[in-house]
Amino acid sequence: MVKRAQPPQRRSKHLCADAGYTGKPALEAIERHGYIPHVKGRGQEASELKRNPTKQARRWVVEVAHSWFNRFRKLLVRYEKLDRSFIALNHLAAAIIAFRKVKLPGSIIYG
Question: From CA 45, how far away is CA 24, in angstroms rounded?
């Protein structure tokens, strides 16, 4: 048997959530699982943006990804009947999205 070193102490866990988690039961559940909640309502983020106009609004990573995928109408409406066709189109869309992030001298794929 090989002796392993003890893992380092885990730092506190933070959870950023949207306005859907502002209620008391949701906050209690977050704290019960050992997270430190950071919950902002819609109006709170807008008022902070008005106070500091140079600060840009942050979008959640998931919302941005959904926005990128929604640009592909065939995926948004889901015309495909077979699961494998739909998954293949999702993979193709993900590849195009990733390829668009590569810095190139000219634009190859328009979007």
Answer: 20
In which domain, by residue range, is 84 found?
59-104
The tens digit of pLDDT for each residue in 33-84 reads 888 888 877 677 677 777 776 766 566 677 788 888 888 888 878 778 888 9
Task: Indicate the pTM of the whole model.
Answer: 0.46
**Position 110: which residue type?**
Y
* 45 and 64, same domain (yes or no): no
Contacts of 18 (CB under 8 A, 6+ apart): 39, 40, 60
Residue 19 is given by DSSP the state G
Q: What single DSSP character describes residue 35?
A: E
